[in-house]
Structure formats: C-alpha cells, structure tokens
Amino acid sequence: MSALHWDYPKAQVIPSPNHGERIGTDRPDILLLHYTGMPSAEGARDWLCTPEAQVSCHYLVYEDGRVDQLVPEARRAWHAGKSLWQGESDINSRSIGIEIANPGHPGGLPPYPDRQIAGLIELCQFCVNRWSIPPERVLAHSDVAPIRKVDPGEVFPWKILYEKGVGHWVAPTPISGGRFFQLGDVGQPVEAIQSMLSLYGYGIEIDGHFGPKTAGVIEAFQRHFRPARIDGIADISTLDTLHRLLASLPTFSS
Which of 99, 136, 154, 219 is catalytic? Predict the structure, then answer.
C-alpha cells in the first residue's frame, strides 16, 4: 500500500489498519462524534488500531486535548456501524469519525475536560472548513444509531461547539406542562412528530404509531438537543425545540 496522506497538522499519526475505500463519494459531508466508552484513552487507541477489532476512526482526542490521527480523511474508517441519516445507510463512507476519550455511561459519564473540548473544537473547525460540512451534519453517534448507541452522551457540550461555529443548535425550550405524546399513542399527531424527526434526518418510520422505535429516536434527539430530561416522551419542550431547529435550517428559512 502506498504511503498514507495525513491531514490535520496538529495530530500525531498512529496508523490503524481498519479502513477502506469510500463508497459512492470521495467527499465526507458528515462529522460524527463518539466517546470511546473505555477506561483509558490508550486502551481505546490500541483497540482502534487492532485488526481483530474491525473498528477505527479518523481521529482520537485525548483528555488533555492532544489528537491522534488513525485513518486518513480520504479513507473510509469503520466507526459508525449500522446507522442511518437522511436516508443514507453507509454513514462510514459519508463521514469523518472522531472518538473522544471518555469512559462514557459505563464509567459514569464524567464531564469532558475543558482542554479536551478546546482541542476537539479546533479539530472540528479544521474538518468542517476543509470539507464544507454543514452545521446540521455535525452529529452524535446516537443521532445516526438511536437505541443502539448513546454516545457522546447528554453531558457533551454541544452548545459550546455551536458558539465556536461547529454544529447546529437552538436553546432548548424550557420543560413545562401541557400535552405530550408517548408509548401507545396513535394517530395524525404522532405521524406529524415522526415526519418532523425524519425531515431533520433521523431514521424513523412514519406510521402514526408511537412505539419503542419512535421513543428511541425521541431519546436520541433529547440527548443531543434537550438533555435536561431524556425520557422518550414528545412533550412541548421537545417538540418546540425540534420545530425551531427545523425552522433555522437553510432549506426552511430561505
């Protein structure tokens, strides 16, 4: 194999063998953020570089803000697994994957250190500018794989990234009373909720039935955009936040 071309100037190169050709595109248009979910960053790095693991990512961001590049951006890293966004199922071919060192929910989901977030923001700015990735396509692993994945988790500071020009965000509507939709509900209002989630990009069947899959997608949305309460219930706070996110997209606001 020819020498790999590395991209981010501040990254140390730690090659992973777990990558291939991008399929159907040569330009990533999604930036996908994960947590490692392992006790140590070094253990995660070693796992991501082990052939038997069959997983990898483009970048790994340590707690102190250091960055390793494991796979060249031109290549298809193996980080997203079974996933879906805006009808596209091969998210690996369409994305740059960034793993953020954090033990995740199994380790109590500790806060992400400030130095780590600062290093991550600089890396994300580099990626989105280099590839012209739209803000609304800076996503969580949990967005593209609801129920199956929950990273980078509800403590991840999406608002801070947005303030630095990375990602899509509106201030979550405060939680209050009022009408809500939950497991077992059926009918046109549920269909409308599913349609809004689908319009934003989530993989969801529009069938008017509020089943476990719809609840799982609502949880994924809440984990990213309304993290104060993650319960899978489509309350006014969740629905209004979703509506305002949709209204702020270029395709809807123009």
Answer: 99
